[in-house]
């Protein structure tokens, strides 16, 4: 179908609908010569005969012509929807955005997203709601959120995703710990430590399976659904923790100093993804949020390397 114009497609479909060149010309408000030339060009482009033209009996489609016209009808119907698609997209960008986000991810990226839109897109109203994976799937399906942000591997089924940033696995230790001054630490160096690890998915299974591969799963004494709880346990010196994050955690909820030491060769990855309904291509909203999260991740990683 390379080289065909929408106008040529319209002429051929009009011929099929009216049964004559003259009828198609009247319908399309062009001359019969223009319609005839268009059909000739289509047949030449496809290297096949699509019509049988007889003066007294009008135009009859060949079998190939019927198949082509059926396909062209679909194309023309879809092109008619383009103005509505553009209008809908513009409305989404200009008016409001509703973001669904996993609770432990929100503190790392929502301030940056809200700041970026407030500074550069002040006409856009941005709202967010913290959701589980099941809630994300439901709300994306219903259209009550425009996009969702979560961890790769925890993204809802039947959604499309854009990768938005890689998180770092840290050992979280008290400031007084012997490893607090290290620039990185191997997991095997933590064999004598007790761990409090995330209880939320997928971080729990990812981290627990890593410890299990190193025969260290017996060192897990607590799990917690809140990173604040994990930080407080570390701040009190009750356990170390393993946490994925974009940047270093420096204090517990009670103000106790803690230190984030990157795990060397962690063997596992955890990235952030932007989720959206699979029936649409990523648009302005998805790509803007992807860029913001990528910039936030890059900024934290740059600070970590200093």
Structure description:
This protein has 306 residues and is of the alpha/beta class. It contains ten helices and eleven strands. The protein has helices at 6-18, 21-28, 32-46, 63-80, 82-94, 106-120, 133-142, 203-213, 227-235, 284-305, and strands at 51-54, 58-61, 96-101, 125-130, 147-151, 160-174, 195-198, 220-224, 240-245, 258-262, 270-276. Strands 3, 4, 5, 6, 7, 8, 9, 10 and 11 form a nine-stranded mixed β-sheet that branches. A two-stranded antiparallel sheet has the order 1-2. It is elongated and about 100 Å long. Mean pLDDT is 87; it is low at 302-306. This is LysR family transcriptional regulator. GO terms for molecular function: DNA binding; DNA-binding transcription factor activity.
Short overview:
GO terms for molecular function: DNA binding; DNA-binding transcription factor activity. The chain is α/β, with parallel strands linked by helices and 306 residues long.
Could you outline the blueprint of secondary structure elements for this entry?
Blueprint: H1 6-18, H2 21-28, H3 32-46, E1 51-54, E2 58-61, H4 63-80, H5 82-94, E3 96-101, H6 106-120, E4 125-130, H7 133-142, E5 147-151, E6 160-174, E7 195-198, H8 203-213, E8 220-224, H9 227-235, E9 240-245, E10 258-262, E11 270-276, H10 284-305
Parallel strand pairs: 3-4, 3-5, 7-8, 7-9
Antiparallel strand pairs: 1-2, 5-11, 6-9, 6-10, 6-11
Pfam family, one: LysR_substrate
Protein name: LysR family transcriptional regulator
Organism: Rothia aerolata
